[in-house]
Design goal:
Length: 437
């Protein structure tokens, strides 16, 4: 249209009845597009979960089912209830109504992965597979792929490592409110029972280049081109998952209604939408312009302490197999034995600055889903030893994998220091038990 000559107005038809063509613009979406070039899924994990987890099903063969929900109150350590948006899996009873964080998805490298995702409630959602490299339609970045509705995401993982999945619609709010889960890409044979291993337990393997670290037994070198499913991997006996997060209770109280940050669209999306229509009445517009967390968690477990203090979670906390793709024994608090190889997967889901330190030397083997020194990246980086007590600094969405192999018993704590993202002021120190006997 011409603003200098209003008479030259391009007529626009109503989108009523054509919602699928505008699926990115409706709140909630009225339709979802089909997955382009849909292949048959080959992921064995949903069938394994159905066979090993009590009451679990695999309603769509070889396919993860994911519900994106909102409006659930969870209690903090002091009894205060705050609103969360949750990710659920309707095929697993323990995850049917959603969990925080969402269920951990494990998938072998190289399979065709499908996730049938539904957005529940009145809020559009997406899933972004953070660190995975799918096609644009399956990348799940809001406004550049689609908001759903429902949709079957499709991709094929190429690199063994630590990733995560999260809603990318109104990301600032939805990610902070809990719409995320951990994603682990494992070796191609991780769920293959033909070699007699216990595919639902430990030891397991992850990608690494440990040519310079002979203290970790069982490392297999070789080349990825050889076709060996465990080339450039190392076994680990104990696995811990630390998802570091923080919560601003004011955000939850001031923006408890899902529509407060969304436009109300008319018949011409982008032309006659009314972004600030929620700027009055019961649900006043909230801009998320300031962030000051006062609750602190690790993998959904509250550090039981107030702002400015130091607090520890209890020993012996682990993730049930129901929420870990059927694999038993993933830990949060670490309990291990001398001369066992411990893999700690760390995800920074906090909006503040994070510093993580250990009571023992650790070897950093992977950053952001890529194993250091493993081809094709071997010319550009390498694993390294991080000294005891020296902080590892992390920012939002970063992942770091470290290995521990202690020669002496340890009864101590890893420290998670939270500092304000603008002022760098100290906020909280959380302690995670590490007991090696």
């Amino acid at each position: 249209m011409s603003f200098s000559k209003p008479g030259f107005l391009i007529p626009r038809r109503s989108v009523e009845g054509h919602e699928a063509e505008w699926v990115k613009s409706f709140d909630p979406p009225q339709a979802s597009p089909p997955t382009p070039e849909l292949l048959n899924p080959t992921n064995p994990v949903p069938a394994f979960v159905a066979a090993t987890v009590r009451g679990a099903t695999n309603a769509i063969p070889n396919t993860e089912r994911i519900y994106l929900m909102h409006g659930t109150d969870l209690s903090m350590w002091d009894g205060k209830k705050l609103e969360f948006y949750l990710i659920g899996n309707p095929d697993v009873p323990a995850a049917k109504n959603g969990t925080f964080p969402g269920p951990t998805i494990r998938v072998p490298r190289g399979v065709v992965f499908h996730a049938h995702v539904e957005g529940h409630g009145q809020t559009p959602h997406t899933i972004h597979w953070h660190g995975i490299e799918p096609t644009a339609m399956n990348d799940g970045v809001g406004h550049t792929s689609m908001d759903l509705g429902e949709y079957t995401y499709q991709w094929q993982p190429n690199h063994i490592g630590s990733y995560f999945y999260h809603c990318h619609r109104n990301t600032l709010q939805h990610f902070d409110f809990g719409l995320y889960g951990f994603l682990i890409v494992e070796p191609p044979d991780a769920f293959d029972p033909t070699d007699g291993k216990n595919i639902g337990g430990y030891p397991r393997r992850t990608a690494a280049n440990l040519n310079d670290f002979p203290e970790f037994p069982g490392f297999i070198g070789g080349t990825l081109e050889s076709g060996d499913p465990v080339a450039m991997t190392v076994p680990y006996d104990v696995e811990a998952l630390w998802v570091i997060d923080d919560i601003d209770s004011v955000w939850r109280e001031q923006a408890s209604h899902a529509h407060q940050t969304f436009a109300k669209h008319g018949n011409r999306p982008g032309v006659d939408d009314r972004f600030r229509e929620n700027d009055s009445g019961k649900y006043d517009f909230f801009a998320f312009h300031d962030y000051n967390p006062n609750y602190f968690v690790v993998t959904g477990v509250n550090f039981p302490g107030r702002l400015g203090s130091t607090a520890s979670i209890k020993p012996g906390i682990s993730l049930p197999a129901d929420l870990n793709s059927g694999v038993k024994g993933m830990q949060i608090s670490i309990a291990a034995k001398v001369d066992q190889t411990i893999l700690v997967r760390i995800l920074c889901a906090a909006y503040t600055k994070i510093k993580v330190s250990f009571p023992v030397d650790v070897v950093v083997i992977a950053v952001d889903g890529r194993a250091l020194g493993v081809p094709p990246f071997g010319k550009y980086n390498h694993p390294y030893t991080h000294p005891v007590g020296t902080p590892i600094e992390m920012s939002t969405a970063q992942r770091i994998d470290v290995l521990i192999r202690a020669k002496q018993p340890i009864d101590g704590f890893a420290q998670v220091e939270y500092r304000h993202h603008l002022s760098d002021a100290f906020l909280f120190n959380g302690r995670i038990p590490i007991q090696i006997k």
